[in-house]
Design a protein that fits this description.
The complex is a heterodimer of chains A (343) and B (321). Chain A has 343 residues and is an alpha+beta fold. Chain A has two domains: 198 residues, no CATH class; 124 residues, no CATH class. Chain A is built from twelve helices and twelve strands. Chain A has an eight-stranded mixed β-sheet. In chain A, strands 5-4-12-11 form a four-stranded antiparallel β-sheet, with no helix packed on it. In chain A, strand 4 and strand 5 form a beta hairpin. The longest helix of chain A has 20 residues. The termini of chain A are far apart. Helix content of chain B is 31%, strand content 13%. Chain B contains eleven helices and nine strands. In chain B, a hairpin with a 6-residue loop joins strand 1 and strand 2. Chain B is globular, with a radius of gyration of 20 Å. In chain B, 42% of the residues are buried. Classes of the chains: A alpha+beta (343), B alpha/beta (321). Chains A and B meet through helix 9, strand 11 and helix 11 of A and strand 2, helix 8 and helix 10 of B. The structure holds iron/sulfur cluster (SF4) (4 copies). One iron/sulfur cluster binds next to helix 10 of chain B.
Chain lengths: 343, 321
Amino acid sequence: MIKIKKSEFSEFIKNLQKNYSVFAPVTDGKATAFKKIKSADDINNKILNTKRSPKEIFFPQSEVLFQYTERGMEVPKREEKPFAIWGMRNCDTKSLLMLDNVFGEAHQMPKKDMYKDPYWKEKYDNCLVFNLACNEPLSTCFCNWFGGGPFDKTGSDIFVVETDDSYIFEAVSDKGKKFLKEFKTAEEISDKEIKKIEKLKETAESYLAEKQDVSSLFSKTKEIWDEPIWDEIAAKCVNCGACAFVCPTCHCFDVSDEGKGNKGKRIRLWDSCMFAIFTKEASGHNPRSQSTQRVRQRVMHKYNYFMDNYDEHLCTGCGRCVVVCPVNLDIREVIKKILDYKK
Amino acid sequence: MIQNLRTEVKKLLKDKKVDIVIGWEKGSLPLSSTPLFIHKEEDVDRLIFDETCRNNLTTYLTKDKRKLGKTYDKVGIIVKGCDARSIVLYSIEQQIKRENIVIIGVPCNGVLEKKKILQKTENEEILELKIDGKNVHLKGRDFDLSIPLNEVLCDSCLTCRYPDAPVHDIFIGKPRKEIDIKDEYKKVTDFEKKSSEERWEYIKEEYSKCIRCYACRNVCPACYCNECFVDQNDPQWIGKTPEVTDSIIFHLIRNLHVAGRCVDCGACVSACPVDLDLRIMNKKVEKEIKERFDYTAGLDINEKPAMASYCENEKQDFIMG
Ligand code: SF4
Ligand code: SF4
Ligand code: SF4
Ligand code: SF4
């Protein structure tokens, strides 16, 4: 482990920018998001959960897949430098591993030789993830339910702890080790600082609400699939896409063609199973025409179907949906209701 | 007040005057209440009504999703002034039968705007909220704050003329008549005074934040189309990207679709996850309609809505010629 002083942070970011396009949490207007930054001044390390999740760096809300004219088609040119993401939290770094299961291969489960998405891979495969420990989790954080935590390092290349005067770096992946090795200016950290980290970790964990045992969530969701409990769960949902669009793990998309005359483009766009139109077929038939069916789909995908495919829940407990839901349909309560349900 | 409300609701259920009552209960976050659907008397004690009851529950009466107004013969619904006006709108537009709805009015002192509160705490999380009369007490991990209630009420509430349901079957307490508001359109007139470049910049900046989640549309009582124009894809009327040009078209068309129908309940504003200023354009349209047709949405069940009537001596200065 090594450290840099806070006073050296600007310089550090500047150096990082030589080889990487650097993204970090910023306040953009009234909303917060991960954006490509110009300098360290743009960064706001206080933001715990950006309103918009960092999945959009790799899987943007709208992405041109190709453009065409009568002379042929072309894929738009991308950024040449690899991406470095500063300031992700554990619930976000873990979400990238999940999305990579779907779109990529770096973390795909062995023998699950599935589709590899070139648009995802070109951004994700060479990226460098700095995971900033959460010194002060929010009351809506429930990463501990799903095996994460404010000081958990899963999914990061370099794990960073912010202390009062420095940032302490620990290499987690090979990529991270290689990066830290090339560091010349940083100092090694002392035992006192290791103790400090321990203390910060303890405090952070004490802020989290009680952990819920979700080990039976998978079997339980399967058991209750056609029970009336879903009507009760879904009653207040207005089927907007707010929860899915702020979620770091939701990844459904739609493909839309925008053309005029001989020119046009094909775009990939976020979609959500909460929208009525999501499953509407060309015939007009809609297998999920009811709100309840759509809410069930979202919950099942997160806590059952994804588990079936990849052995983990498609939820990192970041709590973003809890904060944005306009009717306060709290996913933690949904989980508790399901776990408590008796047939 | 709350005891009287609960007693009334229990009575309605007991006497089988309603099959279901829609109200609010305490939410899971300090600043939130959450919709409550009451079928049984024993759930009535969960009912609350206070400054966190932002949602316009009448939205559950219509729409593809619930159509509670059609599923049940008799629906009781607890309403603030603005919510009651949405029911008037539904009735005029024949989305519900007025006699099927039991409108239960509650005295409204305005509801809290989360975004304003978070500005006060500089985005620090709120862990505890208490309201006593004119003050709001907020507690977080490192702060303890008291602020005057009217600094954190929704903009809609600050200019609301009809806080108590102008149309109702039951009212808990005594409804106030129209309140005189002086500067109702101040924000709009200030906005109108800006140069067109400045206005365009503002609109562009606001609408570029939109993530097209449609929370605003889906909570809105006036947006109940079975298929919204943005969802149609054959033909596809507008682009589906969050690019500002597409977003602006979505919002401006929605503004026109709710023209003369918006009751300024603020549901859209509080639902928006990215804090977009949705009110300025709605209020601008409302002001135009007020000035041109002297019409206010949702006050009179027998009045023809502004956009559904025609009169020869209306101002026609919008026709170029
Ligand atoms: S959910 Fe956990 S990892 Fe995410 S911000 Fe909260 S404490 Fe950090
Ligand atoms: S759960 Fe909440 S945020 Fe998600 S679709 Fe339903 S109403 Fe919208
Ligand atoms: S547009 Fe907004 S303020 Fe107007 S009725 Fe709809 S939700 Fe309410
Ligand atoms: S709620 Fe906000 S972000 Fe969502 S569609 Fe409406 S304006 Fe856009």
